[in-house]
Amino acid sequence: MNKPEHHFLVCASFRLSGDPQGKCHRKGAVSLMQHLEEEILDREINATVSSTGCMKQCEKGPVMVVYPSGYWYGNVDEDIIDTVLDAIENGRVPAVAQLG
User: CA-CA distance, 100 to 97, in Å (whole number)?
Assistant: First the structure.
């Protein structure tokens, strides 16, 4: 099995009932995931994108976590996504807008 070098987890505010609620969803997490996926493909980065349930960081949403670095990013927008991907392309640790 060929596994990706990076895994992007984006909070989509899904609850146990399956309904998207919360700030990440209302602040456009789904469209951010689309932008992220398109940029990964355009840049040919070996990565995958997954939506998640609530990450319990609603006040900082939308929230994104990048593995294997384990960095958490809050108030994510397209500019932050582009900055993180630029850093990954250049072999750096993407530390912009990092949570805790």
Answer: 10
Q: What is the mean pLDDT of each run of 10 residues along the chain (100 residues)?
A: 92 68 81 96 97 88 93 93 94 68
Place of tokens 């209302």: 26
What pTM value is reported for the model?
A: 0.87
CB atoms within 10 A of CB 78: 13
Q: Which residue has the tokens 């949570």?
A: 99
Question: Do the strands 47-53 and 64-67 form a parallel or antiparallel pair, or are they unpaired?
Answer: unpaired
CATH architecture for the domain at 6-99: 3-Layer(aba) Sandwich (3.40)
85: which 2 tokens?
């991907």
Spell out the domain ranges in the chain: 6-99
CA 40 from chain center: how many Å?
11
